[in-house]
Design goal:
The complex is a heterodimer of chains A (414) and B (156). Chain A is an alpha/beta fold and 414 residues long. Chain A has helices spanning 19-24, 29-36, 39-49, 61-70, 94-101, 103-117, 131-146, 178-185, 214-226, 228-232, 265-271, 307-310, 329-343, 349-364, 370-389, 400-409, and strands spanning 80-85, 121-126, 163-168, 209-213, 242-249, 255-260, 281-286, 292-295, 319-324. Chain A folds into three domains: 19-231, NADH-ubiquinone oxidoreductase 51kDa subunit (Rossmann fold, 3-Layer(aba) Sandwich), CATH 3.40.50; 242-324, Ubiquitin-like (UB roll) (Roll), CATH 3.10.20; 329-413, Up-down Bundle (de novo design (two linked rop proteins)). In chain A, α2 packs parallel to α6, α13 packs antiparallel against α14 (349-364) and α15 (370-389) runs antiparallel to α16. Chain A starts with 18 loop residues before the first helix and ends in a 5-residue tail after the last helix. Chain B contains six helices and four strands, in the order ααααβαβββα. A four-stranded mixed β-sheet of chain B has the order 2-1-3-4, with helices on one face. In chain B, a hairpin with a 2-residue loop joins β3 and β4. The chains are: A alpha/beta (414), B alpha+beta (156).
Chain lengths: 414, 156
Amino acid sequence: MIETKIALKNAGKIAPDSLSEYESVGGLNAFRKALKMEPLDVLKSINESGLRGRGGAGFSAGLKGKFTDESMCRYCGQKYIICNADEGEPGTFKDRAIMENDPHLLIEGMLIAAWAIGATTGFIYIRGEYTDSIQKIQRALDNYYTEAWLGKTFDTDDEFKLDLEIRLGAGSYLCGEELTLIESLEGKRGYPRIKPPFPAQHGLWQKPTLVHNVETFAHMPFIIENGADMYRQYGTENSPGTKIFSISGDLNRPGNYETEMGVSLRELIEIAGGMKDDIPVKAILVGGAAGSFVSDEHLDISLCYDSMKKVGGVFGSGAIMVLNETRNLLDFMADIMEFFKHESCGKCIPCRVGTAQLALMAHEIKSLDKDAVYVRLQKMQSEAEYIAANSLCPLGASPIIPISSFNQHLKDKI
Amino acid sequence: MHIQDILVKYEATPDKLLNILHDIQNQSEQSYISESDISALAKYLNTTKAAIYGVVEYYSMFSAQPRGKYVIRVCKSPICRMLGGQDMLNFIQSALNIPTNETDAEKLFTLEVSECLGHCDKAPVMMVNDELHVNLTPEKIDSILSQYRQNKTKKL
């Protein structure tokens, strides 16, 4: 399988700071078309495309839009649209590729989605460390304002108009979770909110809010321009479309590669130039720190939201971290546990204390003999299950994913 | 830049808080948000000092303590560490003669570690203030540090 590009179709081909170059390759055709459609038909088209949220959870983008649309009538009050560009999942750098190479595409996707649900104010919440993305997005917003696509009232029944601004994150992984992001956007500490209610009902300032990942928005212009059926020709039945994989580790050409959903790990390794120095694969972490480990026996798994479940894992954000035979798996595991310890916000005690315990245990087992390691890994798994069951947000539910998949697939390779 | 000159650029709404804090910290010669900044900001946004302080302390990019002119953030994501990140961190510690989370005697550099900086395809990486440095080697770090040393008078 070779690369198939939707979100990165213009990357490297046009100047990212030029709206006219973006238009010269068909940019804004989709939004022009959407404005001539009924908002409900736009929503319907996104729903029929089967597009699933590209941030990691894989929830139906169409349903999310529908819920936000239905929670308040178009003329009844303020709705918000937010782009989650707080890309912090370790091993993931795909949203950066879109923002740095084709920022106008992301904003066109937001225009389409905002029109569909009747949102008139929006924010792009970008992680503070992404200096280049912040500059490129700001430049693209300026272009859209100068050319009167943003901040301008369109000639529609409801006089649709969208204003967009950047808001910066400041180094908190948790703020990549949509409700925590909203807390942060309101100028507060990034503590998670209890769900439900979901942002579709009570989001920013308690108003209906549509939150999508950068890559999700970047797919919308293609869907509107070419139709849901065309989109569905890519990918698999339950995971239509393409996906950007951020491939890192022991490879010849690590980087971002966009392929159809359903690509195999073996194909991705090939696309990324094969294993460095031809040293064979030992393990792959799919989906980031909150992702699942697989071994060299799983290279033919087709990557999509469903197939990863079959090996007891999650698909996640598209991070593919590849470790060769020489790598120490327990060191790698300890680094992941350190990550959760650092990013736990401290609100729920089981997560605050538990992630610290897991990190401690992960370091301790590095010096134990194999049998003792197995016992301790099992203990870590039951601790992680306890944390997952007793914490509010997805962070507490995350350590169990790498730990249980590690125990399931990699025990013999320590 | 005086704090009031920064505040005047922003509407006094709470959603601007993180953007304002970044701005204050970026303008500060010691890369931090002082108590008087926090007081002024609390007054401006009509909230309490405690609320602002809580936000400053919560987010890893902000500091309420003075730091060096240049804040070095070495990525400690699993991939960066696997591909030599720890060696790079050790190298910087001995080059600057400070442990992590400390500032050198000249108050020029503060050394910190950061969670994944999102450049795993060019690991190991670090940031110095807003600038990214990739595919680090000891030689590269030496030349990066000396460049910043030569720019002592100017905040990049």
